[in-house]
Amino acid sequence: MVDASILPLVVSAARVRRDGRDIIGPLDAELAAEGTTLVIGPNGAGKTTFLRMLHGLERLSGGTLRWQALEREVRRRQAFVFQSPVMMRRSVLENAAYPLILRGRTRRQAREAAAGWLARIGLAEAAERPAHVLSGGERQKLALARALVTEPDLLILDEPCASLDGRATREIEALLVAARAAGTRVVMSTHDMGQARRLASDVLFLHRGTIREAGPAEAFFEQPQTPEARAFLRGDIVE
Q1: Segment 16-41, tens digit of pLDDT
Q2: 19: burial class by Cβ within 10 Å (0-12, 13-18, 19+)?
Q3: Contact partners, residue 234, CB within 8 Å, separation at least 6
Q4: For residues 211 and 195, is the Cβ–Cβ distance under 8 A?
Q5: Which side of the chain, N or C, has fewer Cβ within a 10 Å radius?
Q6: Count of CB atoms situated within 10 Å of the CB of 91
């Protein structure tokens, strides 16, 4: 990790509009330089759009994202893992090495670093197999390794364990815990409240495109402050 992080991030009056209406915002938030933020809320709350907005995949219709670095550095030093990751038509090893090649590493350097990550995630023996033949859990681990091989300041994940079984979920969570310990800031969405409790240092609760509640995870789960958050944690339908 480099010394000067792109974080903290200050989000001010940010909005994303589609078809003449706000999908997100206006909202304010701040992401500190350390920790794991879990973004939770009912279906349609805007979680995916919010994460895509942070990563720059959604253009702001208003407001600002204030990073601690220039835009070029911000793009280079963060990574995004989708719920259903896309695998390139290359080997497992080449998929993992590709982000480093984009950043100017030689092919040999990139493959060596990628091979190290494949060993860490248990895919070393699959290195030369086509990536598209991997199982769902293996693909998600490869997507995570492909993101972490660049040692990003910020890792954003959209429901990375939504379609995985218990074993694969545990393996992904272990990788995320290790990434946080190594200094990567993690922001992710989930519908699994058990996972949120296990991983979160803080929580953003979204409802109807706005942040209805934010704060330390323990306080949120033990004593939510808004009726919407209380209903959501009870398992009630929140409209």
Answers
A1: 999 999 999 999 999 999 999 999 99
A2: exposed
A3: none
A4: no
A5: C
A6: 17
198: phi then psi, degrees, rounded to nearest 5: -70, -35
Which DSSP string do the residues of 60-121 spell out, in sequence order? -SEEEEE-SS-HHHHHHTEEEE-SSPPPPSSBHHHHHHHHHHHTT--HHHHHHHHHHHHHHT
Only one residue has tokens 């706000």, namely: 22
Which of 31, 27, 139, 32 minimizes the C-alpha distance to 83? 139
pTM, two decimal places? 0.96
The residues of the chain scoring below 70 in pLDDT are 1-3
For tokens 């038509």, name the residue. 89
Query: What is the layout of strands, in order, in the sheet containing 62-66?
Result: 21-31, 9-18, 62-66
Q: What is the pLDDT of residue 1?
A: 42
Q: Are 53 and 210 in contact (CB under 8 A)?
A: no
Residue 18 DSSP label = E
Per-residue pLDDT reduced to its tens digit, 87-103: 999 999 999 999 999 99
Q: In this structure, how many other beta carbons lie within 10 angstroms of the beta carbon of residue 161?
A: 23
The per-residue DSSP string of 6-65 comes to S--EEEEEEEEEETTEEEEEEEEEEE-SSSEEEEE-STTSSHHHHHHHHHTSS--SEEEE
What is the fold, at CATH topology level, of the domain defined by 9-86+152-234?
Rossmann fold (3.40.50)
Alpha helices in the chain (DSSP H): 47-55, 71-76, 92-102, 107-120, 136-148, 166-181, 193-199, 217-222, 227-234
